[in-house]
Amino acid sequence: MKKSNLFILTPLLTITIACTAPPEKEMVPIETLLIEEKSTEIKRRVFSDSLLQLNTNQVEDAFQLENHHFGDFFCDRASFYVIDEPANTFYSKEASSITLFYIDGALRQTKYLLKDDISGDLIRSYGNFKIAGFDDKNKQLIKARSILKKSYHGVIIEPALDNYELRWVFNDREIKYRVKRVGEEVEFKFVERVKNFEKEFSSIEKMCS
C-alpha cells in the first residue's frame, strides 16, 4: 500500500518586530485523509484461470491483458506481458508477478514469482521429480539423497537445500520450480511451458536477429 503524500498548507506570514499569535493550522477532516489513502492503493485484480492456461489465444485475452504489455520481439512474433501484484493465488500463496510469453499469438510459457515456497505442494500434486543443485553444498546433499523429509504436512524438501530446481516433464509440457535463498533474500520461481518452448523461441530468435 502506498502512503499518500499530504501537505497541509498554511498562509504565508510576513515576519514583523511585534510578536503575534501563531496562526491556527488548517484542520483536514479524517474522511479526506482516508479517501486519499484509498485512492493510492494498488488495485489488485484476479485474472481468469483461462488466461493463464498454455496455448490460449493472445487476441482472445487482449481485454484482460490491457496495460500489462511489456513488449514485442523478434519480428513481433514473441510478446511478453507482466502482471504485477495479481490478486490470484497459487497453491494459496501470493505472487509478486506473473509473466506471460506468447509466440505467434499463443501462450507458450507462464512464469510466477511467488512470495512463499510451494515445493511441497508441487511434489504432492505431481509426484516423482528431477532435482538439480546449483552449488556444491546442494549438489552434495542431493548426491547423498538427503532430499525429502516428512512433516505433518506430508513430504517436504529437506530444509538444508536452499539453491536448487525441481523439474517435471509431461507429454506436452514441462514444469520447473526454482528455489534460491541467499541470506534474507529468497526466490521462488515457478515456470510452466510447452515441451518444445526453447526450440520455438530459439527458432524465431535466429530468424529475426
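[next item in queue]
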Amino acid sequence: MVSKLSICNLFTCSSYLDENQLQALAYIEPEIAGEMEAYPVCLIPDVRVARAFIRLIIAVCQEWKLFIEIHDKENMDDVSRLAFEYLLNEKIDTLHFL
C-alpha cells in the first residue's frame, strides 16, 4: 500500500512522517528508506508500524481523496486488520475502501 502511494510521485512519505515513523514503515516497505539519510536495520514493533501507517493515511487524506482496494480481507494479518478497522471507525470523508 505504502509503496503504491510513493509510486504516484505526488508526495514523499517524509512530507507527512517524522524519522521514527519513516523508520517504522521502512521495516515493511524498504524503498521508503531511500528517503532517509541512514536506515538502521532493527526489529520494529508492530504497533509502531501500524501507528506510522495510520498517521500517513490520515495525513494524506487531509490533502487528497484516497481509494484503497483491499484484496483477500479474510486472510488479512491481525495488525493490518486492526489498522483497517481503526481507519474505518475514523470515518474519514476522503478515505474510501473498495
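[queue empty]
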